[in-house]
Design a protein that fits this description.
The chain is mostly beta strands and about 250 residues long. It is built from 2 helices and 15 strands.
Length: about 250
């Protein structure tokens, strides 16, 4: 049985890396390449997506560039000589298409947040005093209702626990700047014992939970999220276990 179990730390590390890669791929908001003509007096091209990076190239008016992808307010571009660099949005306001039409550079706004379809989040906190981290993905059914699938890792000195859960989340006031939510959920919790000397045995139990939380739109596609949750673990033993957890972290919507 133990040979078939995934080592908790290794699984958590791989999951975090996968989540990070997906999150950053979305944060870069890569789109199909677009060829445009420079209408501004000039473009200052930086080595990275910040004014702190050095300027490596200056592109003059009427030259053509290829816009490869976007990272917040910065765009990765390629000039006629196949050289790439980053240009700030403020320098592309007058940029035109090859048909001399103005390029529309849309910003992600709070309206996009209110109408988004799905989220990915990473939050951390404590589960009965033990460190806990949760990765989740959710699908928005309506502005007031969404579903969520989550994986949580809890690490203790003598045992570790993993929770796989499904939650139904109610958002009574989605338009508020700080929006409360309530959730009901169920799932399974697996306990893995680290020491053979412990009286606790490896086991898997059903659980149910209810939570009160809040989320707040920050900027671009990022949301601040906090959650207080009450868990009831239906143990194979006679007595059920009740545990409270709290977590805070960030979500990314798309």
């Amino acid at each position: 049985m133990q040979a078939l179990m995934i080592r908790p730390m290794r699984f958590t590390t791989l999951t975090l890396l996968l989540f990070y890669n997906v999150l950053m791929a979305n944060a870069y908001a890569e789109e199909s390449a677009q060829t445009v003509k420079v209408a501004d007096p000039f473009l200052e091209v930086h080595t990275g997506a910040s004014v702190g990076y050095p300027i490596i190239n200056v592109i003059e008016r009427d030259e053509t560039i290829i816009v490869l992808k976007r990272r917040t307010s910065w765009f990765l571009i390629q000039d006629d000589h196949q050289k790439e660099g980053w240009v700030h949005r403020s320098q592309l306001i007058k940029t035109l298409t090859l048909d001399d039409e103005k390029v529309e550079l849309k910003d992600v706004t709070r309206e996009n947040y209110l109408d988004h379809n799905s989220e990915m989040s990473m939050i951390g906190g404590e589960f009965d005093g033990l460190p806990m981290i949760t990765l989740s993905t959710s699908y928005v059914l309506t502005r007031n209702l969404s579903t969520e699938i989550s994986f949580s890792q809890i690490l203790g000195d003598f045992s570790s626990r993993q929770i796989i859960g499904v939650n139904l989340i109610q958002h009574p006031f989605p338009g508020w700047k700080v929006s409360p939510y309530f959730s009901l959920g169920t799932g399974i919790i697996s306990t893995s014992v680290k020491s053979t000397l412990s009286q606790i045995k490896d086991r898997t139990d059903l659980l149910a939970n209810v939570s009160l939380g809040m989320q707040m739109y920050l900027t671009r596609r990022f949301i601040l999220r906090a959650d207080l949750k009450k868990h009831i673990i239906f143990q194979s033993r006679n007595k059920n276990e009740e545990i409270t957890s709290w977590q805070v972290g960030f979500a990314f919507f798309f």
